[in-house]
Amino acid sequence: GAVVSQHPSWVICKSGTSVKIECRSLDFQATTMFWYRQFPKQSLMLMATSNEGSKATYEQGVEKDKFLINHASLTLSTLTVTSAHPEDSSFYICSAREGWEQYFGPGTRLTVT
Amino acid sequence: AQSVTQLDSQVPVFEEAPVELRCNYSSSVSVYLFWYVQYPNQGLQLLLKYLSGSTLVKGINGFEAEFNKSQTSFHLRKPSVHISDTAEYFCAVIPQTGANNLFFGTGTRLTVIP
């Protein structure tokens, strides 16, 4: 099946710094990618829909100036957490859509100290 | 609007016993249905999906699910579980028209007891 990678798999950063997470579809082109956030023992919360060549669509309550999404090519979307704070610590998962299916990356564990 | 309900947040079951994880959904339009499995600190892996055709679908790792339109359910079953099946299971739907993202249930933690 299709493969989606994320990098890094985990990152620790200091409060106030910015962190970039990459999501790549390795063997298919994805015009649409999604970014999710998952808190411990909870379901995935959709943060935004990333469309290649256009602005991302953010879900209600998600700060677009804090969570910057760029979908510069058909195989790469990036999520930048700007001025990170401890409350941004979470597990971030991306997915890429092919047809009616979404393929998920392995996730990125972000810890802000 | 769509919503997915997984009534059982935790399901403990003994090894080699059968298991059923329940999923019900609500939608104003027709949907496609999915089950995903998540192992600790990993992303989601597709177990199976229903797009059309036979309402009984078989997936990986010996799992199967049956789509029941009248009951708006898509329960996941396995006749004999293994220790390695211990994981979090998510039911999800995507509308056939309109929104193009998955709507997830809250998940069911399956724990297989040796």
In short:
The complex is a heterodimer of chains A (113) and B (114). Chain A is mostly beta strands and 113 residues long.
What's the helix and strand layout?
The complex is a heterodimer of chains A (113) and B (114).
Chain A: E1 4-7, E2 10-13, E3 19-25, E4 32-38, E5 44-51, E6 57-58, E7 67-73, E8 76-81, E9 90-98, E10 101-104, E11 108-112
Parallel strand pairs in A: 2-11
Antiparallel strand pairs in A: 1-3, 3-8, 4-5, 4-9, 5-6, 7-8, 9-10, 9-11
Chain B: E1 2-5, E2 10-14, E3 19-21, E4 24-27, E5 31-38, E6 44-50, E7 56-58, E8 64-68, E9 73-78, E10 87-95, E11 103-104, E12 108-113
Parallel strand pairs in B: 2-12
Antiparallel strand pairs in B: 1-4, 3-9, 5-6, 5-10, 7-8, 8-9, 10-11, 10-12
Question: Any descriptors?
Answer:
heterodimer; A: 113 residues; mainly beta; seven-stranded mixed sheet; four-stranded antiparallel sheet; 11 strands; 56% strand; B: 114 residues; six-stranded mixed sheet; 12 strands; 54% strand; globular
- Write down the overall mean pLDDT of chain A: 92
The greatest inter-chain interface is formed by: A-B, 24 and 21 residues
Could you give the order of the helices and strands of chain A? EEEEEEEEEEE
Largest sheet of chain A: 7 strands, mixed
Shape of chain B: globular
Oligomer: heterodimer
Give Rg of chain B in angstroms. Answer: 14 Å
Give the beta-strand count of chain A.
11
Tally the helices of chain A: what do you get? 0
**Beta-strand content bin of chain B:** over 45%
Q: For the terminal residues of chain B, how far apart are their CA atoms?
A: 41 Å
- How would the global form of chain A be characterised? globular
How many helix segments of chain B? Answer: 0
Instruction: Let me know the average pLDDT of chain B.
Output: 94
Beta-strand content of chain A: over 45%
Order of helices and strands of chain B: EEEEEEEEEEEE
Low-confidence blocks of residues of chain B: none
Helical amount of chain A: under 10%
